[in-house]
Amino acid sequence: MTSARQKIDYNDVVQHRNVAFNLDEAKIPRYWLDKDPWLTHYMNAIFCNVPRGERFVMKATTKQLDKISDPSIRKAAIAFIRQEGSHAKAHDGLNKVLASQGLPIKNAGMMVDAIFSAYDRYLPDVMKFAFAATGEHFTATLSAAMLENPELWDDTPEDVAALAFWHFVEEVEHKSVSFDVYKDTCGEGAYSYAVLMATLGLGVSTLFTAAHLSWIYLLVKDKQITNVRSAAKTAKKLLFSPGIFTKTFVSEVVPFLSPKFHPWDNDNRFMINVWKEKYDETGDPVQAYHAFRQWHAAQNGSTYSPNRGSEKVAAKTNVQAIA
Ligand SMILES: [Fe+2]
Ligand SMILES: [Fe+2]
Which of 19, 38, 80, 244 could form a disulfide with 177 if both were Cys (CB 3.0 to 4.6 A apart)? Predict the structure, then answer.
């Protein structure tokens, strides 16, 4: 049964998928995202911290499993844990390849790693559970921002892009699970709301800051910190157009502050349907990625081909932008 808080029916909504990627070190350029050092290292900084974050939320969710009263949420939570396990493993693989290219991925993730270890050791369980609900909101909003702007990935090797978009799709697919698990196990009153808000403050002041320091560290180590041109280009993309950072960490914080917030208040499942249909048909995340890109381009009056990326169609008049 679907509770009023839950907003969507969980039947078959969250699925674990077995995927594999051909991450060939020789085919991954150093600046693999938009051919841009600052933007690539922004994503490297996120990716190097992904496995630790995934394992933290998996552990928190596993601890709550036996306390979940709604069987449909419990079923979704089990699929969520399996999905996050696969994300951690796939990113471990990608991080290994990036490290083999000389990037100090391990050192870049040390601060976030230390913060998660401190969380593990000192936070009460209720805050760990709230952290999973809060963190998943931001991974889902970052993923949605990327799904809305896939042109940034035009120059990325297809297996790296396919890995990232598989992860983005599943983050949107399971975006409400931790939140519903938290509400189911910790209640919906003033106390659970206060803990959620305290966790948001803690996460922003520690993890968010540390992840951005990982970015600076990678830029310094790669001698790109003084690349003003790349910094300006990336600042524009993160802050203004398309505004990946602004959408994820500024505008999406506001709705989260409402005591009535639920992740599916913004029902953006339409963005992941084409990917899911193609994956169900082929079992191939690379084909699913290209199908998503073609669908997205058509929605925006562009064309997309796997070899050439996206191109604007000048004469197209019936442009339907993705909200
Ligand atoms: Fe994930
Ligand atoms: Fe997630």
Answer: 80
